[in-house]
Amino acid sequence: MKKKLVLILLVLVYTLTGCSVDKLGEDESKAPAIIARYPEVSKLNRDKIDAIPQHKPDASYWEVDLRHYDLSNLDITDEYNNLKYADFDYGTVWPKKLPKEFDPEKIMKNGKDPGLNLKKLHKKGITGKGVGIAIIDQGLLVNHNEYKKRLRVYEEIHCLDETATMHGSALASISVGENVGVAPQADLYYIAETSGEHKGEDFIMDYSYVAQSIDRILEINDTLPQNKKIRVIAIALGWSSKEKGYEEVIKAVERAKNNGIFVVTSSLAETYYGFNFMGLGRDINEDPNKFNSYRPGLFWNDLYYNNPDNFSNYLLVPMDSRSVASPTGVDDYVFYRRGGLSWSIPYIAGLYALSCQVKPDITPEEFLKAAVDTGEIITYGDDIKYELSKIVNPEKLIKAIKK
After folding, report:
1. Active site includes 198?
2. Where is the signal peptide, in residue numbers (predicted)?
3. What is the band of 403 on the pLDDT scale with cuts at 50, 70, 90?
C-alpha cells in the first residue's frame, strides 16, 4: 500500500512539474528535481552542559559530542585533549575563550575540503559533470544547499525515517557536495530505504529492500540518455549470508554490474574480487591536502598497529575529521571527528565519477587497479616506523586513467 502511494505521489509530482524521468537528461537548469517527499529537518533539542565530555582511548562514536550544545558558560581553555576529539556543528555555542590550538571555524573549513588535492582537479573541470551517482541510504534533507542543485530524483522504498538523517546528508555531500564533495557536478539519484523491520526492541535486518532499491535505480537509468547514465551506486552497508535478503541483494548487485554500474559497499571484497579499502584519520589541525597528514582511521588504528601487514594492499581514502551537510538546516554543517566506512564509500563513488568523466568506457576493475597502482606510500613513526599504503592519489589516478 505504501509503495503504491509513493508511486501515485510521484506521478502527481511529474504532472505538476511538467517533467518526467525520461527528461532528466535534458537541460538540467530547466528540469526540476523529482522529489517524492520532503523530510523535515532533524532537531537536536539541546541546551547548556555542565562540562566537556572526556575522551577515552577505547571509546566509540559520539564520545565528545558537542553538537547544538551551549558551552558559553564553561571555562574550556585547558580542555584541548578532549576538544580535539569533538564533534560540533553550526548550532554549537562556544565560550569567548578557547584553547589556542582549537579554532572551530578553521577546523570546520579544513574539514569541508575533500583533501588530497582534489580541488586542483575541480579547477581543471574534472568534477564528475555528466556522470550519475546513486545513493541508497536513510532519509535525506533534500533541499540542503550543499547538494540540492545536483539532486535529480529522491524516492523512498520502505523508508521508516520520519525526518532527515545525519547519515544521508553526509553521504550526499561527500559524494556530490558543492563545497565538500569529491564530484561536485555529478548528478545525484537518491533512494531512501530502511534495511529491515523493528520487532519489539529488536531490529531485524532484511536486505531485500536494498535489492528493490537497486532495481529501481536500474529502471531510472534505463530512461536516461547515454551521456547521463548512472555509473555508480553508493550503499553504506555490508551484508552477511546469515541475514534475510542476502541472496536478493547479491543478485541485484550482479544485475547492476551487468548494466555497467559500479556498486560500492562495505562488502566490496565479496563483489569485486577481494578488493579491500579503509578510511584514513587526520588530526584536526593537519592539512587535508598533504599525504603525511594521514594515519589509520580512529576506528581501526589499533587493528593496524597490532598487524600492519594485514592492510598492505588496501586502498585508503579520507574518512575522519570531515565537515559535511547537517540535517538540522539547509545551510548547516557539522564536523565529525570520527568517521566510519560509511564516509569512505561515497568518497570512492565520487572518485569513480571523476574517472568516468575523463574515460567514459572505464570499468570498475580498471579503476580499482589504477587507484591502487597510483596510490601513495608514506612512512611515519619515531621508535617504530610504520608504512601506510596505498593512499589514493586523485591527480595520479586521473592522469593514469587518461592514458
Report:
1. no
2. 1-20
3. confident
